[in-house]
Write a structure and sequence with these properties.
The protein has helices at 40-48, 55-75, 80-95, 102-114, 121-151, 177-186, 203-215, 227-232, 258-267, 299-302, and strands at 11-13, 20-23, 34-37, 159-163, 192-196, 219-222, 238-241, 245-247, 252-255, 272-275, 281-282, 320-323, 330-333, 336-338. The protein is α/β, with parallel strands linked by helices and 357 residues long. Helix 2 packs antiparallel against helix 5 (121-151). The longest helix has 31 residues, at 121-151. The chain is globular, with a radius of gyration of 20 Å. The relative contact order is 0.11. The chain binds 5-S-methyl-1-O-phosphono-5-thio-D-ribulose (MRU).
Amino acid sequence: MFPETTNVVSVRWSGDGSGVTIVDQRLLPGEYVERDLRTVADIVDAIRSLAVRGAPAIGVTAAMGLAHLAGAAAAEGLNAPAFRARISEYGLALKGARPTAVNLAWAVDRVLRASGANEDPETAARAMRREADTILAEDRAMCRRIGELGASLIEDGMTVLTHCNTGALATAGIGTALAAVYVAHESGKRIQVVASETRPLLQGSRLTAWELQRAGIPVSVVGEGAVASLMQAGRVDCCIVGADRITRYGDVANKIGTYSHAVVARAHGVPFYVAAPFSTIDAATERGSQVHIEQRSPAEVLSAAGHLAPSAVAALNPAFDVTPASLVAAIITDRGIFRQPYDFGGASPAGPASPIL
Ligand code: MRU
């Protein structure tokens, strides 16, 4: 059953307390199916297979999943050392599910830290559950804040190009880059969105177009190959995309295809914005070349609703690319809008944060 409201809840606690429930994004837009995740294998598989996807959403899912698993481990009556060993093992498995989005490891580490050092398993599991709830609530709040700040960059009448899916499906709230679109629309600005289809898994055409259509926001899907000519024709006023990891100096790892949109935007004088939670900034990584880019199966490139290439031909399938900081006009976070030279405060060696808003 498709939900009647436009508000999609991509991840939530299961009603009977037995785990975490996600919307299976692999099936959209054809079918709306919720899936209960109970075991560590369920959660890892859902993240790895992109049943749940988007950097913030996988972080929140892993945080809630780990808290749920810790509760189950405590209920088994494990002693404290066995409990610690078990939750560390779960944490490692969850962090290993996908490598590029920093939010995944960040959220898992937060929940592990919340377990404290010497507490008994029941107390530790309760603390982990509280931390997962906090991460969930923070994610919703940060989406709203990013949306408000991002909307300030979108003027009435603009056409906004976006890539992949950065909306409610990709977060626990209203999204990051798409949050800016939602808030601009809410405030009465007449805007249009161009969603690039995002080969090979089509997050733009399957998910972004689905979300925006339900919200009543005009959206046109385009193949990646059409983006340059649209910009050349002056039909895009700004680009806003999300991020999976932003390095200390502002390089942006995001869905494959982001970089080429940024190059084309620069060539045509179109501002290229990135919207992401502050927690997506990875101070430990200086440059984009150091980011681990997930390589996915060639099968995703070679087939989609039937074969697109001769069988057994080789294919490359990097899931993300890196847009150099020099191509990004501003980074919109829940802690403000940052422009070059980046100074992310606590996340940077360079001193206090200096957002322009
Ligand atoms: O492989 P995906 O679909 O998880 O990739 C998602 C993206 O690249 C998003 O742009 C990013 O995670 C930000 S989501 C708010």
